[in-house]
Design brief:
Strands 1, 2, 3, 4, 5 and 6 form a 6-stranded mixed beta sheet that branches. The chain is globular. It starts with a helix and ends in a 9-residue tail after the last helix. Helix 3 packs parallel to helix 6. Helices cover about 45% and strands about 20% of the residues. The longest helix is centred in the N-terminal third of the chain and has 21 residues. It has about 170 residues and is an alpha/beta fold. The N terminus is likely disordered. The chain has a single domain, classed as Rossmann fold (3-Layer(aba) Sandwich).
Length: about 170
């Protein structure tokens, strides 16, 4: 009888609740274009690629189930009018306005059409501490090279088990 009551109590309690994945704000990537063509002609193709890799990162991290990716639309304009890498923490304030636990900012540095670097920074919104940073160089300034580089960073850095944790 005692076992039956214990089983009934366990059934009524249900399964333990699992914590929701952390809320993540992913800001649009920024460009530092120090290339000669960029100085003369502007960075139109790169600006389009920045939007693509930002969306790619949001989509793949949302699909991973490890994060609840937030819509940054309410703060997008403010984010675009700031240099998120050097604004003294405005990125954390904007992410906090969205209710985010974590935030990602990113930067692409273009030295030339053959030397480009993609950087991703993941921070804790409440403490401002850097959780991890990931960087990859790419050779070639094409849609494919940018997308493949972002895929590499997602797969081998951001979603890789134990990446960035002390051993």
């Amino acid at each position: 009888m005692r076992a039956l009551i214990c089983c009934a109590a366990l059934l009524l309690m249900g399964a333990p609740a699992f914590a929701d994945p952390p809320k993540l704000a992913i800001f649009d990537f920024e460009l530092i274009d120090t290339s000669l063509p960029g100085e003369f002609y502007g960075s139109k193709p790169e600006e389009i690629r920045l939007a693509h890799i930002s969306d790619q990162l949001r989509k793949e991290l949302a699909e991973s189930g490890r994060f609840q990716v937030l819509d940054i639309a309410p703060v997008r304009d403010a984010a675009h009018h700031a240099n998120l890498q050097a604004c003294g923490g405005c990125d954390l304030k904007l992410a906090g306005q969205l209710g985010a636990d974590l935030e990602i900012t990113g930067m692409v540095q273009k030295v030339s059409n053959l030397i480009i670097n993609l950087n991703v920074y993941l921070r804790d919104v409440k403490t401002g501490n850097m959780i991890t940073a990931a960087s990859a160089d790419m050779r070639g300034n094409t849609d494919e090279s940018w997308s493949r580089t972002m895929s590499y960073l997602i797969r081998n850095r951001i979603l890789a088990p134990n990446y960035g944790k002390p051993e």
